[in-house]
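Recall that a protein's primary structure is simply its ordered list of amino acids. Everything else, from secondary elements to tertiary packing, is in principle encoded there. The following example makes that idea concrete.
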Amino acid sequence: MRAMLSPLFALLLTLPALAAATDADEYAARRAEVMRRIGPDAMLILRSPPLQTRNGDVDWPFRQEDSLLYLTGLDNPDTTLVLVPGDEAHREIVFTLDSDPAAELWTGRIPSFDEVSKRSGVTEVVSETRFEDFVRAAMEGRAWGDSASYRSFATAGLPNWVQKRRDGRAVVWMIQENRHFGDDASAEQHLVERLRRSYPELQFRDAFPLLTDMRMVKSPSEIATVQRAIDATVAAQKAAMRRVKTATHEYQVQATIEYTFRDQGACCWGFPSIVAAGRNATTLHYVTNNDPIPAGALMLTDIGAEVAGYTADVTRTYPQNGRFNPEQRAIYAAVLRAQDATIAMMKPGAHMRDLHELAIKTLGEDLLQIGLISRNERDQVRMYFPHGLGHDLGLRVHDVNDRTQPLAPGRIVTSEPGIYVRAADVRANPVFLALPDAERAGIDAALTKYADIGVRIEDDILVTTDTPTNLSAGAPRTVADIEAWMAGETP
């Protein structure tokens, strides 16, 4: 599959920003690849998550399970996909909601079975109320099909499968990403336990690693969808940079960002927006977004729109008044240099762990120059750069990945170095306390000078067979470009 991807990158370059979503043929090809990998003695079951109550009788907006969305494109609740590679008559089945006029009066139209089939490419679409009947039919050799054929003497609906189950060869694959004991067990775990009790000869496998391997490398249609999410996010970053000059509170900038997401056609955010002014920018996952914006302070916005299930993740840091002061500029330049160095190395064969170490080394060179460390040593740099360099991006903001594998064409990864000067934390850090008095004194002076400055720059990088492509380069990124944009000097 991966060998087929490289020639498609030329095609990708011609795709418009608003390219059509993945089509049914691609979903069918993905399912075919899954069935090839799990083999003829297997059954894959993927189920949508239940609706989650926010409070009272109000539910959170529904979000489809990633792998089910990846294999079908279906984003409606109460949906189950079953793949049975060894059964020609019932290789693919989708169980989904029936039309219900009473429910549709309150919550909107339910897609018809024909629409579900057209979207996913699965021809056998049946009521979700029949899933339990299907499981019993498959495991016990009962009939499966038109209800008129249900008779005690009817032929088994999946005869090959029931024989494999009896022989102890049948393998049920399900997502087992979240494993907990006791009352915290997932719905998938509960189903596995029910099946294990009733049919102890079954074998069980976790489908998560298999689907992780497939999902890491993105197809051209996936890359185009991620680009749509990034384009909406870039527009939001540019709007935020201008809004901050007149905003008095973080939530006003957040409102501009999330309005822009929707205005650009994104459904929502892919993760809660981080809109952090002043010292709040030194808190990595600050999401309160309520504080006043200090005059001249830096604003850090770490945001990502979601389109068709795929999310962007772009961070920019910029001054409230549109001009970096010398201390802000020095920290910003250090982070930008580290990001430039790591992006250039995001090529096939590279490992993210090595790029992370490159970021630490590069940041250390500048931190040493400005006095925040006494030697370019990893532990000292980590006082200011405590997180990882980046992550895969796709159906999740921190998308599935295998950290043992090197980068490959088609992966989308982020580069997000940062420096966060939390003076009190550094002064209490064992690494700082172990330094000689003279070295601590030098760092202490720099901490006073650069206190409460937090800078992160994050871009979404497509690994290609050649030069890495910065998909989020449209958001002003250099000091000069940010200042020009905020001054209204560039369109």
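Residues 220-243 form the longest helix (24 residues). The longest strand covers residues 42-47.
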